Amino acid sequence: MPTPKKPLPNKPLPKKTSPKKSPSGSTKPSSRKPLVYGAVIVAAALLGFASYKATSPGDSSANTSTAPAAEVSADPQAGVYPELTKLARRDAGDKLAVGRADAPVVLIEYADFKCGYCGKFARDTEPELIKEYVEDGTLRIEWRNFPIFGEESENAARASWAAGQQDRFWEFHAAAYAEGAKEKGFGKDRIKALAQEAGVKDLARFMKDLDGPDARAAVAKDQEQGYGIGATSTPSFLINGRPIAGAQPKETFTRAIEAAAEQAKAKTAGKAGSDASEGAGNSGDSAK
To answer: How far, in Å, CA of 256 to CA of 109, rounded?
Structure first.
């Protein structure tokens, strides 16, 4: 019998002893409280799928725990928090998203470009999910910048947003998550080189945008949302309101996506049946 794959641990949020402003202007998680849409419960669910041993952000060789993969029940509604489905923006003009705005399933990813396990997901799992589910219209992926490892994380987050303003977010995403990219750091010169590699045409505009107020506000908004659901590590995911923590095996995402698609299909069928019944009832009333 083949040995089952073990999940890759996610990266823990460094502990802070006091509230502190980040370069994007947002407050660190020690001052954050979960948002009011039931996230007190959700936080426990998000972080309870798997437990991880801390590893330093730059130490990809550190020994990690062998925590169990996040369980996805055969019941498509199990482990789903309907209030969290509202976090999907479904904005057709969103530069940091891929897939149809009306796709039945939305995967929201909270990630940091300095996170090695985010990179592993980006290189190994995400392209397969795009090929299998985004291209057939089932899945939409929405990115949320969740920089938690300091100034260079903030630089990369704002740079990804700036690249997106020139329709090169996903190209920048690929360049920043390429094997060995994070080891070179995300200082300003390196950021500019990555933008050039990603095909950003107006580099002067790019450099201005990444330090501008709009980039800072966009990153702060994503951080606020991540902290609000209780995320304390990267990568963290929501799939139609189902929290998944860590760079889990592809099969975990596949099960969650297919369960969410099944639930969306059932909901659509139920609504259609209800509308048909109401229509028949109204016809009967008018015939009397």
So the answer is: 14
Look up the pTM and report it.
0.77
- Distance between CA 50 and CA 83 in Å, rounded? 22
Q: Residue type at 264?
A: A
Q: What is the pLDDT of residues 33-48, one digit of tens each?
A: 555 345 445 544 454 4
Average pLDDT over residues 247-274: 90
Nearest-angstrom CA–CA distance, 43 and 238: 12
pLDDT for the residue numbered 79: 84
For 244-258, give the secondary structure using H, E and C. EECECCHHHHHHHHH
Contact between 261 and 180 (Cβ < 8 Å): no
Sheet containing strand 105-111, strands side by side: 97-98, 139-145, 105-111, 236-239, 242-245
d(CA 258, CA 230): 25
The residues, ordered by sequence, that sit 6+ positions from 281 with a Cβ below 8 Å of its Cβ are none
Evaluate whether 163 touches 209 at the Cβ level (below 8 Å). no
Is-contact 139 225, C-beta < 8 A?
Answer: no
- Residue showing tokens 């899945």: 139
Q: Which residues contact 255 (CB under 8 A, 6 or more apart)?
A: 72
Q: How far is CA 234 from the centre of its chain?
A: 9
